[in-house]
Write a structure and sequence with these properties.
- With 128 residues, the protein is mainly α.
- The protein has one domain: Substrate Binding Domain Of Dnak, Chain:A, Domain 2.
- Helices cover 78% and strands 0% of the residues.
- About 7% of the residues have low confidence.
Length: 128
């Protein structure tokens, strides 16, 4: 499933690189085509992933301030969460296998779960 999404992006991104608009060439405020919606969903997931990486770095600093065991527990949890997110979104996307909407479903799911994880991590480590 991820392979199919990557293949789809392989064909979409070169043409998008030479388009005007956002980095991907899609007008995400007014996306009308499936191609644009797929690219915008991918961009949104990448932004969510950057936010999560920022929060993870901050949370790891907080965790290390508590103890090495706390930092290791966070590292282990995050390493387990990533395959969970990918599998959960694969399960959603597989229902649309072969359809042009499949990447949109996959990337939207990954964005949603990534943002959810970011907020959970922020809430837990802000308390400490």
């Amino acid at each position: 499933m991820i392979r199919k999404a990557l293949i789809t992006l392989t064909f979409l991104l070169p043409s998008a690189a030479f388009s005007e608009g956002t980095d991907w060439g899609a007008d995400c405020e007014n996306a009308m085509t499936q191609r644009d919606m797929n690219l915008c969903a991918y961009e949104a997931w990448m932004r969510a992933d950057e936010d999560l990486n920022d929060i993870y770095g901050w949370a790891m600093g907080v965790a290390k301030g508590r103890s090495e065991a706390t930092a290791e527990a966070l590292r282990t949890a995050q390493r387990a969460w990533i395959p969970y997110r990918d599998a959960a979104c694969e399960a959603e996307g597989i229902m649309f296998e072969g359809g042009t909407i499949q990447p949109l479903i996959l990337f939207t799911c990954k964005e949603h779960l990534t943002r959810q994880r970011t907020e959970e991590m922020r809430a837990v480590y802000e308390m400490n």
